[in-house]
Amino acid sequence: MGARRSRVVVVTGASGGIGRATARAFAARGDRVALLARGRAGLEAAAADVRQAGGEALVVPTDVSEHEQVTAAARRVEAELGPVDVWVNAAFATVLAPFWEVSPAEYERATHVTYLGFVNGTRAALDVMRPRDRGTIVQVGSALGERSVPLQSVYCGAKHAINGFTSSLRTELLHEGSGVQVTIAQMPAVNTPQFTWVLSRLPRHPRPVAPVYQPEVAARGVLHAADHPARRQHWVGGSTVATVAANRFAAPLLDRYLARTGFDAQQGEEIVAPDRPHNLWEPVDEAEGQDHGAHGAFDDEAHSRSAQQWWVRNWPVASAAGAGLLAAAAYTTARLRRG
After folding, report:
1. What is the greatest pairwise CA distance in the chain?
2. I want to staple 236 with a disulfide (CB 3.0 to 4.6 A). Which of 152, 153, 221, 294 is the partner?
3. Sign of dihedral through CA atoms 194, 213, 97, 105?
4. Structure confidence at residue 333 (pLDDT)
5. Where are the alpha helices (DSSP H) in 228-314?
6. What values do phi and psi take at 136, rounded to 5?
7. 198, pLDDT greater than 70
8. What share of the chain is helix, strand, coil (3-state, %, to 5)?
9. What's the pLDDT at 313?
10. Dihedral Cα 305, 307, 310, 316, nearest 10 deg
């Protein structure tokens, strides 16, 4: 078997969080990674991560809410790195607040980044992939695209929209008989810097709802999705599976439960200033000149592994092992009964 071919991968939202960890994970495979985001400090640090991991990096400052910028970025990537094999949409911006405390301008801006940013990225990817009839698009989704929570109407609405958009697009590609594939990796709560720089009107420091996973867990989920794009979606983390299942079978009960617990569960103990810096309109790292990395402020509690994800990646072996254990247990039980 020959050596694996180095691929050209585009990652939006690559300056921090899941996008940053994903870029690093692809680089560890020896891939050439184009890094798209707004903040120059985070992008340059992400490029250093990619090179240190063994990949080739291309920094392309881009506001994904502007389709002209995303289209230009795709053309530059093709010119400098080669044909795009994988495009990962991970960029987002949001507001944490009750719906009536989010202004129309803020709602529109966050939706342009989080929903239309995925639409723009997908369009740019298809423009270069469809003519050669190959390529993979991975949407970084969320369990909150299946089950909404209070204080996140902006984010939940956008993630639901991404699910609907991607499902429609998939059927169009199937109708065309296209070799381009699109899939979604649905994420759990992840320890990213977003809780430090998100626009929040909550009195206390925003936090992910436990259990929390490290960005590297999410990145492994993205890589698995990119390697298996024929599946409609991939659930990452046991909490994602539990959330989706619970919503399908007990949505009204979840409504009442989240109404009681969802406000406190998304806030820590620390009081935060209402005018703290946020990234809705401008990248925080651009203003500060400081890289925030992939991880957020919750390293102490975040899980670096997911048993569910291990099972998904190894299910033929795991299933065979489980069947073997069951057979051995049945044999032992029968022997004991006879003895």
Report:
1. 77
2. 221
3. positive
4. 47
5. 238-265, 284-288, 307-313
6. -130, 135
7. yes
8. 55, 15, 30
9. 75
10. 170
pTM above 0.85, yes or no: yes
> How many other CB atoms are there within 10 angstroms of residue 71's CB atom?
17
Tell me, what DSSP letter sits at residue 145?
G
Distance CA 275, CA 11 (A): 30
The answer to whether 65 touches 117, Cβ cutoff 8 Å, is yes
Exposed, middle or buried by CB within 10 Å (0-12, 13-18, 19+), for 228? Answer: middle
On the CB side of 219, CA atoms within 13 Å amount to 25
196 touches 296 (CB < 8 A): yes
Question: How many Å apart are CA 79 and CA 75, to the nearest integer?
Answer: 6
**Residue whose tokens read 């694996």:** 4
Give the residue ranges of DSSP H helices in 8-39. 17-28
Count how many residues are written for the chain.
339
| Element housing 175 (H / E) | helix 153-176
Question: At which residue do the structure tokens 């899980």 appear?
Answer: 303
Active-site hit among 107, 115, 155, 257? 155
53 closest CA partner among 11, 2, 1: 11
In this structure, the number of other CB atoms found within 10 A of the CB of residue 164 comes to 10
How far does CA 158 lie from the centroid of its chain?
13
Rounded average pLDDT over 208-227: 97
| Rounded Cα distance, 328 and 116, in Å | 53
Phi, psi of 94 (to 5 degrees): -155, 180
8 A C-beta contact, residue 110 and residue 94: yes
What are the tokens at 192?
């990213």
Answer yes or no: 213 catalytic.
Answer: no
